[in-house]
UniProtKB/TrEMBL annotation:
GO terms for biological process: methylation. Its EC number is 2.1.1.176. It holds the Pfam family RsmF-B_ferredox. This is 16S rRNA (Cytosine967-C5)-methyltransferase. It comes from Thalassospira tepidiphila.
């Protein structure tokens, strides 16, 4: 595709996203799904530019308003981004907005005037409000300031960078060295070991793992290092009986099966049958099908699951959440999640935590996890749980993982030994994990 045609595609994608406010990934998938003639290289550039418009959403909007420009659509934002982010000149942009087939229409006088106003400037400006600099809605900026204070700028700068590609090596199929050898044989370069997860690899963006022998043979799974650390903190052992109550696509379930060396029983539950169908396929490819049982449940009060009270050695609750810890991969989330959504999620999380706790046997452990950065979904919810459930005691991260690098745990005090991960500090997605051990049978209040 011509450079101008790629720009036109980005504008079309952005306008489509802002019109229906659908999930950005779905917008991209639908766009390319109906245009299979677009090659892989073009898809990568179009996608990257589209997500950059979302990552630069607040600052581009500020600049357009600062220039008294009357439009805020995809075309205006694309022009501003080409100047402020890419540093292109009027002549450069005219080459792309040339009016040829599949390219944007030629620049209008007011657009040339905008380019002149923006020329020599960058996305950032000292006069921008804090929420604009951080690329956050005002309400979310206010909440995160309470958590990060003066570190918020650095935290959000890390969230506004694309994430690299993390892999988990499936020890049921081979070693980390086997995976590296296989990937290199397929021409994959620049392979790094993840700094914290013992079976993790980190690769550059833009690689298609699905065509590699390592993926087809079940030797690797795509999984962020934060999720791998969460699995590690479950501390699953061979022969255990484990409930993965919000299993989704089964990524953590497979990690548990590998830690158990395929010996024991894992019950993977979810309310969405489609997710579990995908999980079954992944389990077969990973060689973990014999120890995993998938089951669709109605909700956390499912009658079949209720009969399993006090039954499990480990209960993992990777609960539905805002997902705001995944902003590196899903930058549009910050503009889709509102305070009302958050309150609804908190209510659901509380119910799942209460139901999951009832399934833990005495001496067993409950693991609560989110890919959220919001204290309301993490520390505050856990503190309420601790007040209500005196039969559970928190287990410090360093007891489960004694050889963890010192930079991993971010404790909130002796009585709050939770794990909070972030891309700024750890290079992972934003993630929260709390582990509890059941000391008595107890009753839910």
């Amino acid at each position: 595709m011509k450079p101008g045609a790629r720009i036109a595609a980005v504008i079309e994608l952005y306008d489509g996203w802002t019109h229906n406010r659908d999930d950005a990934d779905r917008v991209v998938s639908g766009y390319f799904g109906s245009r299979r003639y677009i090659g892989g290289g073009d898809r990568r550039e179009i996608s990257e530019r589209f997500y950059n418009l979302i990552r630069h959403q607040a600052r581009l909007g500020w600049w357009l308003a600062e220039c008294d420009y009357q439009f805020q659509d995809g075309r205006a934002r694309m022009i501003a981004d080409l100047v402020l982010h890419d540093g292109l000149t009027t002549s450069d942009i005219e080459d792309r907005f040339c009016g040829e087939q599949f390219c944007p229409d030629i620049l209008r006088p007011n657009e040339k005037h905008l380019i002149n106003k923006l020329s020599g400037k960058t996305l950032d400006h000292d006069a921008q409000p804090g929420a604009v600099k951080a690329e956050l809605p005002k309400w979310l900026y206010t909440e995160l300031m309470k958590l990060h204070h003066e570190n918020l700028a650095a935290e959000m700068a890390a969230y506004n960078q694309p994430a690299k590609l993390d892999l988990r090596v499936n020890r049921l199929r081979g070693t980390v060295e086997d995976a590296i050898k296989s990937l290199k044989a397929d021409g994959i370069k620049d392979i790094e070991r993840t700094p914290y997860a013992p079976n993790g690899l980190r690769l550059p963006l833009g690689l298609n793992m699905l065509v590699t022998a390592a993926y087809k043979d079940g030797l690797i799974e795509i999984q962020d290092e934060a999720s791998q650390i969460c699995v590690h903190l479950v501390d699953a052992k061979p022969g255990m009986t484990i409930l993965d109550m919000c299993a989704g696509g089964g990524g953590k379930t497979l990690g548990l099966a590998a830690d158990m060396r395929g010996k024991g029983r894992i019950l993977a539950c979810d309310t969405h049958g489609g997710r579990l169908d995908n999980a079954r396929k992944r389990a077969r490819r990973a060689g973990a099908g014999d120890c995993i049982q998938q089951r669709i449940i109605a909700d956390e009060r499912d009658s079949w699951l209720r009969n399993k009270s006090g039954f499990f050695d480990r209960v993992l609750l990777d609960v539905p959440c805002s997902g705001l810890g995944t902003l590196r991969r899903n930058p549009a989330l910050r503009w889709r999640i509102g305070q009302r959504d958050l309150r609804g999620l908190m209510a659901e999380q509380s119910k799942i935590l209460k139901a999951g706790a009832a399934k833990v046997t005495k001496g067993g452990r409950l693991i609560y996890a989110t890919c959220s950065i919001m204290p309301e979904e993490n520390e505050r919810l856990i503190e309420t749980f601790m007040r209500d459930r005196k039969d559970f005691k928190p287990v410090p991260v360093n007891e489960i993982w004694p050889d963890a690098p010192k930079s991993v745990p971010v404790p909130g005090g002796k009585d709050k030994p939770w794990l909070r991960l972030s891309p700024n500090v750890h290079g992972t997605d934003g993630f929260f994990v709390a582990v509890f051990e059941r000391t008595a049978k107890g009753k839910v209040k």
